[in-house]
């Protein structure tokens, strides 16, 4: 596996890309792992999980995005976390009208995607290979470009 290129993995919500990041980290070939929020068992995540009502919701939703491998955790760069939290909260807000949930959710998702793609673009120069979730690759204009259209 030492012949593998040093790879940057860019994820949104694909378990398979998480598995790839772990395998590359085990082989010493993971350059960085860029994704929205990831539960890394930080003090505030443990505190959120222990709050009676909030804890159950957190554990069933964002808390499931756990990174157990310390090598992967060290190489993880989270981006768009606030918008990601907003997207998760909005998606579970039953009191919010459906049209507002859909339009607000779409805006928040675009924000998360832009932030993850921008963070990945800043780190891509340190990798030989980039493996990205669909729609997360940036076009060659990288200045103000958003996510490239899938090909």
Describe this structure in words.
The chain has 151 residues and is α/β, with parallel strands linked by helices. The protein has one domain. The chain is 48% helix and 11% strand. It has 6 helices and 4 strands; from the N terminus they run βαβαααβααβ. It has a 4-stranded parallel β-sheet with strand order 3-2-1-4, with helices on both faces. Helix 5 runs antiparallel to helix 6. The C terminus is likely disordered.
Give the topology.
Blueprint: E1 7-10, H1 15-26, E2 30-35, H2 43-50, H3 52-60, H4 70-75, E3 76-78, H5 81-91, H6 98-123, E4 129-132
Parallel strand pairs: 1-2, 1-4, 2-3
Q: Provide the β-strand percentage band.
A: 5-15%
* Helical segment count: 6
Widest beta sheet: strand line-up: 3-2-1-4
> Mean of the pLDDT scores?
85
Unreliable residue stretches: 140-151
In total, the number of strands is 4
**Shape verdict:** globular
Structural class: alpha/beta
Helical residues, percent: 40-55%
End-to-end Cα distance: 29 Å
Number of domains: 1
Radius of gyration: 16 Å
SSE ordering:
EHEHHHEHHE
Sheet having the most strands: 4 strands, parallel
What's the quick description here?
With 151 residues, this protein is α/β, with parallel strands linked by helices. It is built from 6 helices and 4 strands; from the N terminus they run E-H-E-H-H-H-E-H-H-E. It has one domain.
């Amino acid at each position: 596996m030492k012949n593998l290129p040093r790879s940057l993995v860019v994820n949104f919500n694909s378990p398979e890309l998480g598995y790839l990041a772990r395998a590359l980290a085990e082989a010493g070939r993971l350059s960085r792992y860029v994704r929205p929020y990831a539960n890394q068992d930080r003090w505030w995540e443990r505190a959120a999980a222990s709050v009676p009502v909030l804890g159950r919701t957190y554990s069933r939703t964002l808390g499931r995005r756990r990174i157990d491998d310390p090598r992967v955790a060290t190489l993880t760069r989270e981006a768009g976390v606030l918008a990601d939290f907003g997207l998760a909260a909005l998606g579970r807000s039953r009191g919010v009208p459906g049209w507002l949930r859909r339009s607000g959710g779409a805006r928040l998702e675009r924000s998360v995607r832009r932030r993850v793609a921008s963070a990945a673009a800043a780190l891509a120069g340190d990798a030989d290979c980039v493996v990205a979730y669909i729609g997360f690759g940036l076009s060659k204009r990288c200045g103000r470009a958003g996510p490239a259209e899938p090909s």
